[in-house]
Amino acid sequence: MLTGCPMSSPMKLSADSRKRLLLLTVGIVPLTNLLVYAWVSANLVISRDQWRFLPMVEDWFEGRFALISLWLTHSQHRIPAYKVLFLLDARFFGLNMRLEVMLGTALLALAVFHMLKRFMDTAPEGIPRRRLLLGSALIALLGFSLNQWASLIYGLGALNGFGRIAFFVEFWLLLDICLRREASVFAIIGVCTLLVFTLIAWAGGHGPAFLLASLTTIALVILQTGWGQRQLRWLAISLLVSGVAAECVYWLVGPIPAAQGALSGFLQAVATHPRRAVEYVLMALCNSAIPVAGMEHHGWPHALTLIIGAGIAMIYLAAIILFVHRRCWRSSCMPLFLMGYGLFVICSIFAARFTSEGMANAVAPRYVLDTQLGLIGCCWSLFLWVDDCSSARFLLRPAALLPVMFAAVLLLEGLDSGMLWIHNREQRKMFADAVEEVRSGDFEAQDWICPDEALCRTGTAFMRRARLNIFRGAAGRTSD
């Protein structure tokens, strides 16, 4: 469907078996690190928003369950897909939080390996195998980063968060194919159906950022190729209509709390404190690469956070400009989807949280699984560019720039992993204390685990009766 891109056709390195072997080679070490961390660090007790789902489980067990409970929400995140999985976990596995964490991690692995395969398929033809290995290792290091630790220890964060990312990635991979080929009517219907399902069932409050990233990428392609291509025109219109319709259903059908901080208050805060607004964005960008909150708590200089954030901002700018200038979307639109989504997520949490929660929200670890996708897009885009710069000098040559990029990412990920493993024992001790607090029914000492004391006491009584979660087993023991 698209023309004029100087990038090459999908590469043919060798047999498919060699490509699968390369996928496993670059992914096995960071994935193993991720899986081990998730297994040993998972919080085994119900916590935070999961307490609010227990009345739904109790209704299910007692035969008065209503489907509307899957749609109702106490926040800006409707998560009907996770609620269904939560009910199934309660019914068949007794609310096993480690199972939720590991299943979510498996979904993340699926998404990252699919991205890696698309990356290899769209690499320039004739690229040296060592260079492809470096580029693939960049994607794997970022995709399996322990900077996502907040999602790796929490059943809701892992299963819902990584499930959301998996559906986003699979949608973009399918849309990427449709944008680069003649999309049939059935393909357009399929991709629109997947978009609506993803927005309604998985996206939650991240739906607007996801939809904007998708539509912006399509709009850029149309600007470069023209509006005359019939299939591209129908694809764009169909996605716009179905996406907007799905978001209207999400936000307007049924009660949902208003986003914290009105738009007028947000704009006033930005106009009044522009320096703090810029600082917020730089902190969020840095947080997509390293766990800023934890590192600053242990002496990491705030100035260094801002410097790294500014560097990442320049990388985004360079990657987007080079992607557009080199007309790289014929090889793949995936890097632009990822970069756009990472930036739109930062903008959305900035707009929704800056006025109400202040600067600390910029480095909240729960957003990392979304914002780091933008870093993957940057590395992907720069990889496509440096391979086309054989005439450049010194550090701009691919043979020099790719190892520099790899060394920088390896250093950051090493900092992440080292710090998190060093303090892992403290975290596990905290979770063990949380289990004892829930057993005792005293929620004052572990206020982070319980959003409402009365709700948690009622939920604990139900779990004890139904032998769920830490009360599974005849003696009420924790079952791993």
Report on the architecture of this protein.
The chain is mainly α. The protein is about 70% helix and about 0% strand. It is built from 19 helices and no strands. Helix 5 runs parallel beside helix 17 (about 400-420), helix 9 (about 205-225) packs antiparallel against helix 10 (about 230-250) and helix 12 packs across helix 15 (about 335-355). It is globular and about 60 Å long. Mean pLDDT is about 85; it is low at about 5-15, about 390-395 and about 475-480.
Give start-end ranges of low-pLDDT stretches: 3-15, 390-396, 474-480
Question: In angstroms, what separates the terminal alpha carbons?
Answer: 52 Å
Q: Output the number of helix runs.
A: 19
Radius of gyration, CA atoms, in whole angstroms: 23 Å
Mean pLDDT: 85
Structural class, by secondary structure, is mainly alpha
Q: What is the total tally of β strands?
A: 0
Tell me the fraction of residues in β-strands, as a range: under 5%
Q: Biggest sheet: strands, sense, closure?
A: none
Q: What overall form do the CA principal axes indicate? A: globular
Which sequence of SSEs, written as H and E, runs from N to C?
Answer: HHHHHHHHHHHHHHHHHHH
Range of helix content:
55-70%
